[in-house]
């Protein structure tokens, strides 16, 4: 029987050099096969950098050798941003060959590709500044383990079932420099390809999708990327890191039931994930590098992450053992299990990482329960893991509001709407006050009356009216700048997208930049003009009331405007650093505007 299982599983062990080695490994895995258990590891956003954090590389090498040796996964998924690809000043971006060589050297020295199936995919950083996929700059092709661009379907075959892993490659091609490739794009044909991969995977016991971008940062046509992957148990991604520490855990569930599990970065936080299919139930633990012992309770699995449409949850009710995976470089002295605070006993070691304890699930068939496992190792380190579970299939738990908001909102649509609204508000204000009759000024001047009065003056003075109107329309429609969006390739940037190398890349982050431009420049500029006009209306009946206001308000207002101007000038500098000197000069939106304004300010400081 064992021989048969070995033959079936040969494909997953094809890296084995000789038969003897094969047999040792097989014996190691044999009980796991009987327990129908497959273990894999994920890591994301490594950002190997030539300039920053010299510990990142040796730590990663240690991960590839020591951590992988301890966990012995059948598969490792690296979900993008293998290299940092940023210039020394952090503003520019380009593919740096030595970063890629370092990455490849780590894979070679640690021999990790001989120990496990290593699947590394591209992130947005790995596609900065690449004119086309065949370009020599596309070092991913040359130095990564996987080599091939585009989405694909990988099947991990075991004697007890097949497990599909489908990669979503939403990186841009051509790949503009930062920051305009923060969002991924899937066009019509890419979506069709994904949908045929999804059909292929229906034969597998379980399907996992993975990619660099969370679905909220992928622009997709037709039914949307979440719909295409609706048959998957989970979608694994990276990209958002931990939002600078704000969201250490970013997990949620699509309306279709698929889990979306963002994994924190290796770059700063040294995060990785252990993932296991135990009797076709998915469990995972997000861990920190070198924090041992690592504990993963696979049965009963966590209720929060259970999906009755994707998993045979009834197996929990029919199980005979509580199953726990424990990983540690040192000897494990005890694995204590308790449910609802009642100690059930010590789980005993079966093989490899697997510990089990007999239980009777019927005792827990009603309602919610909490399992806790405390693991102690020989060098005195311990770790406690726990979660809520239910044996009854009909219960479910909800994810946190914030992480759902971040993972399930289509941010590019939100940004597009908000940008459109801010532009609309400004134009509407101008139009209304241009054609509204001037109010008669009676009574004490309140804030509303002063605002409306100044808006009347602004909108009815042609110079101001047309300048502000054109500025607003231009922000929405005009080209913002022309520059080297990719080295050697001129591109034009609009609010609604970027044209480069004959391709139109749909707008996404551009709308966010547009919103910032509106909120921190166009609207304040209009307000500032109103304020200046109000100050100049000397001789008007109620202007004497304003005079005493002027003194204590004038300084902060001018200062604020100066600050906003400084921001504009900084963004000109940013433009020069990211897209070249030409972009600096050919940017009506930024340089010309700031220049104009600076002149105005210097010539007429009143
Ligand atoms: C995988 O699917 C096959 C066919 O449906 C089934 O016989 C097998 O038990 C499944 N594997 C597991 C681990 O449940």
Helical amount: 25-40%
Mean pLDDT: 85
Strand content: 15-25%
| Structural class designation | alpha+beta
Distance between the termini: 92 Å
What binds here, in terms of ligands, is: 2-acetamido-2-deoxy-beta-D-glucopyranose
Count of discrete domains:
4
Number of helices: 16
Keywords: Membrane, Transmembrane, Transmembrane helix
Domain TMEM62 Ig-like: 290-392
Transmembrane segments: 25-46, 413-436, 464-483, 515-537, 549-570
Pfam families: Ig_TMM62 (PF24384), Metallophos (PF00149), TMEM62_C (PF24394)
Overview of the structural elements:
With 606 residues, this protein is an alpha+beta fold. The chain folds into four domains: 1-30, no CATH class; 37-288, Purple Acid Phosphatase, chain A, domain 2 (4-Layer Sandwich); 292-399, Immunoglobulin-like; 411-603, no CATH class. Helices cover 38% and strands 24% of the residues. The strands form six sheets. It has a six-stranded mixed β-sheet, covered by helices on one side. Strands 3-2-1-12-13 form a five-stranded mixed β-sheet. A four-stranded antiparallel β-sheet has the order 14-15-19-18. β10 and β11 form a beta hairpin. α11 (411-435) packs across α12. It starts with a helix and ends with a helix. Mean pLDDT is 85; it is low at 1-28 and 602-606. The chain binds 2-acetamido-2-deoxy-beta-D-glucopyranose. 2-acetamido-2-deoxy-beta-D-glucopyranose (NAG) binds at residues 36, 160-161, 205, 279-280. 2-acetamido-2-deoxy-beta-D-glucopyranose binds at residues 36, 160-161, 205, 279-280.
């Amino acid at each position: 029987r064992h021989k048969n299982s070995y033959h079936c599983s040969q494909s997953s062990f094809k890296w084995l050099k000789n038969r003897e080695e094969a047999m040792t490994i097989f014996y190691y895995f044999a009980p796991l096969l009987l327990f129908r258990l497959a273990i894999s590891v994920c890591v994301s956003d490594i950002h190997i950098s030539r300039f920053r954090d010299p510990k990142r590389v040796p730590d990663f090498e240690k991960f590839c050798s020591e951590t992988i040796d301890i966990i012995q996964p059948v598969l490792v998924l690296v979900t993008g941003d293998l290299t940092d690809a940023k210039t020394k000043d952090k503003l520019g971006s380009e593919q740096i060959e030595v970063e890629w060589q370092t990455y490849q050297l780590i894979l070679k020295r640690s021999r990790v590709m001989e120990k496990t199936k290593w699947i590394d995919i591209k992130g947005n950083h790995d596609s900065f500044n690449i004119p086309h996929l065949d370009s020599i700059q596309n070092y991913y092709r040359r130095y990564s383990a996987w080599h091939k661009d585009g989405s694909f379907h990988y099947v991990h075959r075991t004697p007890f079932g097949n497990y599909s892993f489908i990669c979503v490659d939403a990186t841009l091609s051509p790949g503009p420099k930062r920051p305009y490739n923060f969002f991924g794009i899937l066009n019509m044909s890419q979506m069709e390809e994904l949908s045929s991969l999804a059909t292929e995977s229906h034969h597998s016991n379980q399907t996992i999708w993975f990619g660099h971008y969370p679905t909220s940062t992928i622009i997709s046509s037709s039914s949307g990327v979440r719909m295409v992957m609706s048959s998957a148990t989970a979608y694994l991604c990276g990209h958002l890191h931990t939002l600078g520490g704000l969201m250490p855990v970013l997990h949620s569930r699509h309306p279709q039931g698929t889990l979306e599990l963002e994994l924190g970065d290796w770059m700063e936080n040294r995060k990785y994930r252990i993932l296991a299919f135990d009797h076709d139930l998915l469990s995972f633990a997000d861990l920190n590098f070198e924090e041992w012992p690592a504990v993963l309770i696979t049965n009963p699995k966590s209720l929060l992450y259970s999906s009755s449409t994707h998993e045979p949850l009834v197996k929990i009710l029919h199980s005979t053992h509580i199953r726990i995976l424990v990983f540690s470089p040192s000897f494990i002295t005890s694995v204590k299990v308790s449910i609802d605070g009642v100690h059930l006993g010590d789980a005993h070691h079966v093989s490899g990482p697997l510990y089990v304890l007999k239980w009777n699930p019927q005792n827990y068939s009603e309602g919610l329960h909490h399992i806790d496992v405390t693991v102690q190792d020989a060098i005195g380190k311990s770790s406690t893991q726990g979660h809520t579970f239910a044996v009854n299939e009909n219960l479910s738990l909800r994810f946190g509001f914030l992480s759902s908001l971040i993972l399930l909102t289509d941010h590019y649509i939100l940004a597009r709407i908000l940008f459109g609204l801010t532009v609309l508000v400004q134009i509407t204000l101008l139009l209304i006050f241009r054609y509204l009759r001037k109010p008669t000024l009676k009574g004490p001047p309140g804030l509303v009356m002063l605002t409306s009065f100044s808006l009347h003056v602004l909108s009815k003075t042609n110079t101001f009216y047309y300048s502000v109107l054109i500025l607003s329309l231009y922000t929405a429609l005009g080209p913002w700048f022309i520059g080297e969006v990719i080295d050697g390739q001129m591109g034009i940037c609009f609010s609604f997208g970027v044209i480069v190398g004959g391709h139109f890349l749909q707008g996404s982050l551009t709308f966010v930049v547009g919103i910032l431009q509106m909120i921190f420049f166009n609207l304040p500029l209009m307000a500032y003009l109103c304020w200046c006009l109000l100050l100049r209306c000397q001789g008007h009946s109620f202007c004497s009331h304003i005079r005493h206001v002027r003194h204590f308000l004038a300084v902060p207002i001018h200062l604020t405007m100066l600050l906003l101007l400084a921001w504009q000038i900084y963004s000109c500098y940013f433009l020069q650093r990211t897209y070249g000197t030409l972009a600096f000069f050919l940017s009506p939106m930024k340089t010309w505007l700031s220049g104009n304004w600076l002149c105005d300010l210097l010539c007429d400081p009143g």
